[in-house]
Amino acid sequence: MINELLRDAKVRMQSALDVLSDDLVGIRTGRASPALIEKLQVEYYGSELTLIQLATISVPESRQLLIRPFDGSSLKAIEKAILASDLGLTPSNDGKVIRLNLPPLTEERRRDLVKMVNNRLEDAKVAIRNIRRDCLKDMREFEKEKMISEDELKQGEDEIQELTNQMTDQVSVIGKRKEEEIMEF
Q1: Are strands 55-61 and 47-50 parallel, antiparallel or unpaired?
Q2: Could you give the C-alpha distances from 134 to 42, 75, 116, 140, in angstroms and in order?
Q3: Is-contact 61 99, C-beta < 8 A?
Q4: pTM metric for this prediction
Q5: Average pLDDT of 146-150?
Q6: Is the CATH number 3.40.50.2300 carried by domain 2-25+106-183?
Q7: Which of 54, 51, 83, 84 is CA-nearest to residue 70?
Q8: What is the layout of strands, in order, in the sheet containing 91-93?
Q9: What DSSP state is assigned to residue 90?
């Protein structure tokens, strides 16, 4: 009974880590990365599609992204979506492809990005603690209903706390790595 709760909690916590990792990929560092824009929402013939569904994205140079639409008629919609995003990038359209030149990050912008990363890290830690809270609540209900003993409850509480500590440590490691990546020149 407790092992099932712990397995479920571990899967949910790992899912929170995966979401965090995916989220941090989109935060810009000094290098161009297709992940920066591939999830950008583009309105195309009345539908909201991600950019990766409408075009191929390549990195011809370290500070440039090249967007080659599958359908030439989507060029304007893609350009409009990039301008409307909070990326702060200006697309250069030559009629067939869009080029995005990434300017070097200023020290101030790097600090802002680190703050944004720290906010996302805190959100992930809160999600992990909420999973722990739900698991503890279920364990206490099982103990109240005499489905588990008091000793099993105590052991389960210790195990979920240990799992929570491991996952929050992983969040910190992921955050430290991303912070170093952002601050590197």
Answers
A1: unpaired
A2: 37, 47, 27, 10
A3: no
A4: 0.71
A5: 91
A6: no
A7: 54
A8: 55-61, 64-69, 98-101, 91-93
A9: -
Mean of the per-residue pLDDT values for the chain? 90
Is the confidence at residue 67, as pLDDT, over 90? yes
Q: Which fold has domain 34-101?
A: Gyrase A; domain 2 (3.30.1360)
Give the strand pairing for 47-50 and 41-44: antiparallel
Tell me which H or E stretch contains 181: helix 150-183
Tokens read off for 152: 């099993």
pLDDT at 151 over 90: yes
Going from N- to C-terminal start, the domains of the chain cover 2-25+106-183, 34-101
H or E element that contains 39: none
Give the single-character DSSP code of 106.
P
Highest mean predicted confidence (pLDDT) among 1-5, 61-65, 119-123: 119-123
Q: Per-residue pLDDT averaged across 71-78, rounded? A: 91
Tell me if domain 2-25+106-183 and domain 34-101 are identical in fold.
no
- Residues 24 and 46: their CA atoms lie apart, in Å, by 29
pLDDT in tens, 6-16: 999 999 999 99
